[in-house]
Amino acid sequence: MQITSLGHAGFMVELEKSVVIMDPWLSPFGAFDSSWFQYPRNHHMLSEVQDRLAVRDKEFYLYISHEHKDHFDEFTLNNIDTSQITFLIPKYRRTELLDRIQNFNSKSLILFEDGKSISLEGCTVTIFVDDQELNRDSGILLESDKSSFLNINDCKLYDRIPWILDRWGRPDVFSCQFSGASWHPVCYQYDEKEYRRISRSKKFSKFTNVARVIAKVNPQYYLAAAGPPVFLDSNLMGINFQEDSPFPRAPEFLEYLNRYPKDDNIQCDELLPGEMLNVKSGVFKKDLDLRQRIESFQDYVYKYSKEYAEYFNRFQKENFPTDPDKLFSDLIQILEAKIENFSLNHRITRPLYLGTTEIENDWIRIDFFSKKIEKTEEIYDENYYSIKVPGWQLSRAVSGRITWEDMMLTFREIMNRKPDVYQTLVIGFVVMEVEDVNHLCNYLLGLEQRTDRIVVEAGGNLYSVDKYCPHQGSDLSEGEIREERFLICPRHRWEYDLWTDGICISSNETINAVILEPDA
Predict the structure, then answer these.
(1) Cα-based distances in Å from 34 to 76, 231, 236, 285, 320
(2) What are the tens digits of pLDDT across the range 28-51?
(3) E-assigned strands of 92-231?
(4) Is the same domain home to 149 and 95?
(5) Of 443, 469, 498, which residue constitutes the final position of a domain?
(6) Is 435 in the same domain as 487?
(7) Could you tell me whether strands 18-22 and 10-14 are parallel, antiparallel, or unpaired per DSSP bridges?
(8) Which of these three, 402, 424, 443, is where a domain ends?
């Protein structure tokens, strides 16, 4: 097995009888309306993939983990010969990824349900599907006679790792995302001190989660991958250079891993675009010239961004809405359709204000409880969510040229919430499409109806708690205890205070913790 990095979360895995390509994002136009770009740049790897496909000596497979544009890159697929490729696709309730993949001329397509293993030419592929409505993602296990590679990229399968290891065994190579990719706190209005505190907390929470998983998996090799990108739009450039950034780079994480307790035989490294690992021999082939060019991160990014200055000016001008009134009118129609399908609207007790960054005093106010939508010139509620989006960006979501989630992942929005408490339903309402919002409601109701309980020990006491996290259903039996008081969710690091009935310290969710009396 030889693993070649394609950059970001992309790999090309060469086996004796087959080649498996994973999540190739090679577009020179970035992703999420060109807000994200690959670091280091990897656009040259497109010709590498094209050349490999031209040598028709093996079976070719292409795995797409999920529909986010830094994994499902239609530019790449439009520029390679897909006619000889078999697509390996996870099965989600929402069929957006499948529908788009079927537009390509492929040799065949295999749809995988969760945990399904299929024998292919000279290898076995298993895909693990994580479909939680608000998030859809998957991981892949590739096994040959001699080696195995477990790649969960962005997919937070942390609580399922013991089950995977028990059934499929320890993989030789493991890869997963080590950096965040969230608009919180990047897009929120915090003062500098609070922003840095939150960023640092999120960074080290992610580090801890991934380090724990690496120690559990105990592979021969861990490959740091799946981010973060760089932001080349002049309006976003500052994100690249923030102190205590929530988007740390691989060298910082690898340094952290050196201090984290784990088996000393695990070799942790990063493959840059075009670099290779021969799993059998353990030999890394590295691009020393590229590594030298990126030594000065700031210089590299500034030079990178200069090549796109004119592109951004043209792109944003071409998409700027000529009729703001019509934009707001169309937006209101979409919001009305969303809230009509939103069965848990009564649970949201504060309104959401939506506006554009160009017009300061022009808002659309959504009152969830009464299902009332109105235009207003000011925010007049004490408790509220607010989101301002550039008009040109909002128009692309309203017109359906990008999804609502893609719009939020541009990081071009400005957000605020008072009080500063996360609520899944509000975010779900914003990022999901009209036809999907009520599926989220049904999913959350399904979580609430689970009656499974577990017992955890903290500070010398036993507590009975709900087994599944109310956020996105993570198995809390794989969580950890902090400060003899807080139960930490293994996926997203939500902290539940066992001393206050298991209420989450950053939201109103609860795991209904009950202290158990000792036996008489």
Answers:
(1) 15, 8, 11, 31, 15
(2) 999 999 999 999 999 999 999 999
(3) 108-112, 116-120, 123-131, 136-143, 148-153, 173-177, 221-225
(4) yes
(5) 443
(6) no
(7) antiparallel
(8) 443
Range of the domain at 401: 321-443
Identity at 437, one-letter amino acid code: V
CA torsion angle for 360, 361, 364, 366 (degrees, to 10)?
Answer: 100
Same domain, 364 and 437: yes
Alpha helices in 294-423 (DSSP H): 297-306, 309-319, 324-340, 391-398, 404-409
Q: How many CA atoms lie within 13 A of 24 on its CB side?
A: 29
The residue type found at 264 is: D
Number of domains in the chain: 3
Q: Is residue 238 part of a domain?
A: yes
**Same structural domain, 476 and 436:** no
Residue with tokens 């030594």: 295
The DSSP bridge pattern shows strands 267-270 and 221-225 to be parallel
For residue 494, what are its two tokens? 């939500």
Shared-domain flag, residues 236 and 348: no
Count the Cβ atoms, other than its own, within 10 Å of residue 358.
Answer: 15
φ/ψ of 216, rounded to 5, equals -70, -45
Predicted TM-score of the model (pTM): 0.91
Instruction: Dump pLDDT digits (tens) for 144-185.
Output: 988 999 999 999 999 999 999 999 999 999 999 999 888 999
Asked if residues 134 and 428 have their Cβ atoms less than 8 Å apart, the reply is yes
